[in-house]
C-alpha cells in the first residue's frame, strides 16, 4: 500500500539560466577529476595493492615479487573494525514513543539494511560517500541509492556548509558512453558525451526537469570525521611516488587511514627486509678459500650463486697463504626485524584507535572483562563519533524520501537508532540492561533495544506477549483458573486444585 498522501500536489522552482549551470557542471566535474588519483590510492591501499616505493630500485627487481605474498594489509582492518559495528535498526523523531514504521519500510524497501556497510565503508575509506534520494513513479517508495565519491560530488553553500547548493553525478556505462546529471534546488539537468567528447543534451530522457521545492538538492553526503574546511592530502601522498595534487580532497571528510599510509609502507618494508634476510642470511653460508672455481667453456671462472646453504669460493694468493681454508658464516638475527614490525604495528594501532590485540593476534594477551572494555574504549569512542556525524545525514535522507511523497513528515527531524556497538557477552549485557531498567524505570521496549533487538523483533515479541495474555485469559474463563495456571484457592483454605489440561 502506498504511503502517498497527495502526490499530484507539487510546488516547483522556476528554471534557471542554462549557461550558468553549464559552468557549474564543468566546475564540479573538475573537482571529480582532481580527487580521482587520491581516491584510487585509497582504493588500492584498502585492497592491499601497495606501492613498492619503500624498496630500493635494485632490490625491487630481485625481491619486489615477494610483496604480493608477504605484505600484511592492516588498513582494511582499520576501516572494518568500526564499520562492522555500525548497524541501523530503525528511525525515530524527537518525543516519539516508538520508531516510525514507515521510515523503516522505506529503508528496507531500498535494501539499505543489507547494503548499509558499503556506505560506511566508502565514507571511511575516502572521507565522504553519498545518498541520492529519487522518486521513480514505478516504485512504491522513493529510491535511496548509495553513491561513490568517484562518481558523485556536492557543492556546499559558502554561507552555510550544512546546506547543499548543487550536486553532480558522472558515470560511464558498460558500453563506454559518459553521462552526467546536475542536481539543483528544484531542478535537474542531464547531459551525455557525444562522439567528439562534447557535452550534449541526453537523448531518450527529459533534459531539463523540475523537482518539488521541499526536496531541494536530493543528495545527502555522509561525512567521515568532518572538518570545517576541506582537508589537504597527507604529506606522504603529496610526494613521490604518489604525487597527489594539493587541491585533491573529498568534501569535508577525511579517510580513516589517511595519516597511516606511510606506516603501512614502513611495515611492508620491514616485512620484505625480514623475508630477504631469512632467505639470504637465515642459513649458514659456507665458504672455501683456495679451492679452484669451476670453469666455463671459455675457461672463465663461474660465479657461484648466492643461495641458502651455498658454497662461496674465494680466490687467494698462493704465495701469501698456500693453505686452503673452509668455514661458514653465522646466520642473521631475524628477531630484530620482528621487533621493528611489532613496533610499527603498535604505532598504527595507537594512531587509528584500533585495539592492538586486533592487529597482533597471538602476540599479545587477549584482555577480558573490564580490561577488554578499557582496551576498546578508543574504538568505541571512534564509532560513537561516526554515529554522531552520520546519523543526522541518514535522517535527512529519510526526510527527503517523505518530501518526495508529499508527506508532512518531511519536516520532521529523523534520527537513526543504532545497535549496541560496545563489546559485551550476552549475559553481561542483559544483566547490565536489567539493572539499569530497574533503577531508572526504563520501559521494556527500550530495554529490548539496548540489548540489541531490532524493531521487527520487538514487534514480533510484543505480538507473542499479547497472544500469551489472550491465551491465559481464555484458559481462566474456560477452566476457572488464575492466569498463573493454578485454580483459585477456595475460601476454606484448602490447597488449590491442579489446573486441568487444555
List keywords for this structure.
502 residues, alpha+beta, 2 domains, six-stranded antiparallel β-sheet, 16% strand, disordered N terminus
Mean pLDDT: 82
- Stretches where pLDDT falls below 50 for ≥5 residues? 1-15, 491-497
Largest sheet: 6 strands, antiparallel
Strand fraction equals 15-25%
Strand elements, count? 14
In terms of structural class, how would the helical and strand content be classed?
Answer: alpha+beta
Shape: flat
Number of H/I helices: 15
SSE arrangement, N to C: HHHHEHHEEEEEEEEEHHEEEHHHHEHHH
Radius of gyration over alpha carbons? 33 Å
The amount of helix comes to: 40-55%
Number of domains: 2
**Cα-to-Cα separation, first versus last residue:** 40 Å
Describe, in short, the structure shown.
The protein starts with 17 loop residues before the first helix and ends in a 23-residue tail after the last helix.
